[in-house]
Amino acid sequence: MRILLVEDDALLAATVAQLLREAGYAVDVEGDAGSALVTFEIEPEDLVVLDVRLPGMPGGGIELCRRIRESAADVPILMLTAIGARATIVQCLDAGADDYLVKPFHVEELLARIRALLRRAPTALPPRLTVGSLTLDPGRRVVERRGRVIALSPKEFSVLDYLMRHPDAVVTSSDLIDHAWDRNYEGYSNVVPTYIRYLRRKLSMPGEADPIVTHRGAGYSVTSETG
């Protein structure tokens, strides 16, 4: 899942982005409303978290919220505000926000609200994904193979999550990077094969076939036949 975070406080943005990444989300960060709108229009995100007071656009975050809602009726929007006044909250909701959170906030509450919004979204994942012998619970972030719970890192979980959302389909490395890494990722080119190797090591079971199939020159897949 990819989140667009729009916050002009650079320190707060970096802190929240890191926490979201540790929770397994890919995060794109913008510091002003104008840049955020351009980013969203290039490639809509799964969820938007934005501050009420933003530079770069008359009306700030509330106007940005309104424009995002006009272009994408279904994307969940969570607004952050340092002003808990009823009038401000009403403005946020009337502009198209689905929820709001008053600063300062606890990280656990932010993550819980994000999970709740994603559950209600039209593109929300089913409660459990099952492909062959693999079962993945997006809400609880638990993976099992034949009843055995497998501990995965947030990034490993995101990669497997995307593969299992597309069973029997060949998923390219570019698709996986788009889903599990930030849009401006400029890391090393072998990052996807590296994480596929990590997953294979953790998912392996004696006497069982490898649940991840490599299609040379094309990508990877998780299929029921390999389960």
Automatic annotation (TrEMBL):
Locations listed in the record: Cytoplasm
Gene3D superfamilies: 3.40.50.2300, 6.10.250.690, Winged helix-like DNA-binding domain superfamily/Winged helix DNA-binding domain
Keywords: DNA-binding, Phosphoprotein, Transcription, Transcription regulation, Two-component regulatory system
Primary location class: cytoplasm
DNA-binding span(s): 126-224
A Pfam short name: Trans_reg_C
Span of domain Response regulatory: 2-118
BP GO terms, sorted: regulation of DNA-templated transcription
Residue numbers of 4-aspartylphosphate PTMs: D51
GO molecular function: phosphorelay response regulator activity; transcription cis-regulatory region binding
GO annotation, cellular component aspect: cytosol; protein-DNA complex
Boundaries of every OmpR/PhoB-type domain copy: 126-224
Name of the protein in its database record: Transcriptional regulatory protein TcrA
Taxonomic lineage of the native organism: Bacteria, Bacillati, Actinomycetota, Actinomycetes, Micrococcales
Gene: tcrA_2
